[in-house]
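Team,

Forwarding the record for the chain on the shared tracking sheet. I've put the sequence and predicted structure together so nobody has to dig through attachments.
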Amino acid sequence: MIKISTPLIEIKHVGPRFLQKFKKLNIETVKDLVYSFPSRYEDFSDIVKIVDLAINQQATIQGTIQAVKVKRTWKRKMFIVEALVSDDTGSIKAIWFNARFLLSIIKKGKIVNLAGKVASDPESGLCLTHPVYEIINQQQIADEKIIETKHTGRIVPVYPETKGLTSKGIRYLLKPILDNLEKLPEILPKEIIKKYNFPEINSALKNIHFPDDIESAKTAKKRFAYEDLLMLSFINLTARLRLNRQKAYQVKIDLDFVKNLLLKLPFELTFSQKKSLWEILKNMEQSRPMNRLLQGDVGSGKTIVAAIAALSAAREGKQSAFMAPTEILARQHYFTFQKFFKEFNCGIGLITSKEARIFYGDGLENGIKKPEFIKKIQTGEIKIIIGTHSLIQKNILFNNLAFVVIDEQHRFGVNQRAELLRNSNQISEKILPHFLSMSATPIPRTLTLTIFGDLDLSIIDELPKNRKLIITKIVASANRDKAYAFIRGQVKKGRQAFVICPRIELTEEDQKLTAQNIINIWDNVKMVKEEYEKLSKNIFPDLKVGMLHGRMKAKEKNEIMGNFKNGKIDILVSTSVVEVGVDIPNTAIMMIESADKFGLSQLYQFRGRVGRGEHQSFCFLFTDSSSKFVYKRLNSLIEAKNGFELAEKDLEIRGPGEFLRSAIGWAQTGDPDISMKALQNPALVKSSREDAQNILKSDSDLKNYPLLKEKLNTFQKEVHLE
């Protein structure tokens, strides 16, 4: 018997070279291989007579090899192996390219199964091009025994592949492993197996790899999908239970104070802003820590909502920390407080790698040395501290931290929370701050409730009143000059423009490979430096054009952004460094080069950088592609009424795996397809969550489910949300 923990190197036919190929797919043990599920299946179950074959048909034939020959095409220096195969109804030619090794396998007189797509052949009429082959044991046919096949004559699994490791090679290894694998203990409770009529784990593993029919494969997939969703639900629910046992500062709501703050704003909050603010403030009144996600479109006003909550905490003498992913965004938050809350003299501080500043209200602001700034945090003199993750430093100690806002960070890790607690003077009392995560990346509700199930959810799904919709257009190469003329006209009216490019410049390696015609992936992809030169010298020589990218030093980036904000730059050519944290109301044009190279959520973020002022704003999506798929994809950005609708479209186009990896930083070992697709099944998500709740109600530590608990511990190590 083969043990599930056996290293793959100990399996017959797996040598060091083969193992290295498996390692590229993160497969090193029997368990890794067995739990690497097929991405799809080929239906080669029906063995068809040669006379019944038709062009474009996917089929399996069984016949005898009549002749084998090899040809060479001198022009392309390619070897072609041809075999003539016949059954009792006729003959067909099979062709393989660059596969001379087949001459030692495909021999005259052998009985063979061939599976693949039927194509037309000018000489013989029909042929099989590069079919899957499988030699059949002639003795088994003579003895009329049941012939078990791996690659043909059945539902055939297809796996993710790498160079030198094909699905056929994986099937070759997997079949004898599964036939000789030790019996695995069942993880799922008996009542759940019975409730959903799931196959037990050993049957499920065999059915997912080598099913007798498609239905068996579907049932097995559903079982493993449910298993992953159940684990996710356990993680979220146990996190909630742990958090509910913790203590937090109770921040009393002063309604008159909040109303006064709202009246002083130069705009009225939308209904969803008010609702979200109320949910946050009510949470902060509780003695257990808030753990809430505030989702909202770009420019929907999340920062103002969080700021009012922070000011409410300051009024009660408590500290708040605003954590941003970039220094640009941190400064943006600091300026927001300065702009809208000029009279508030609680001490609002900004700390970055380069500076420390304190705002005391009424226009009083001063720079300060970092050691002194840090001391003022510790004494509680600074009530609202704004910065990057540098706030989690060993030398920064908070006095009474009651509220933490994490902006554009979808998941603030347990370790980081522990750091904040360690850096607080309230550690002896074990008092946790209230946590608010903010995200401008809209995620469909089903995914949100599953992935962020340990968080309460507030959604701002309205744009501020009187905000004009951004006019978005796809611009083909033929209309480029017209777009340039329009941009020039807007700039002459006093507006400003962004130009976004995917890359800074080609690296030496890129140039070398391109020169050798090895790759052409950067053909027609705009580079920042190249585009800056073209626009500043050829297209807009009379306008002030600037350049911004991630390789610049922080001081240089800040200077450029300052010049752009102050109107000293008309057009700013940039990489995705401006994706978040840029708020310049006079910017009315967003021009995105090679738009097809960006994800929809990225494009949405870029577009959100304009349309924040009183002027009509425009977003131009430039592409040199003629692909219908590209146009359909880019057009979804135009058609979507809001970010949440766009997220649904993005999910539909890319699938849950790619969507989540780019949107929230999902990293997962093993097979991503099954559990990811399961997230699109609301019924399965709901069922798994309810089952997890019921189990935890009666057994919060899973003492009666040791195998389930063991699986949960493994799952937590393998799946990361960050």
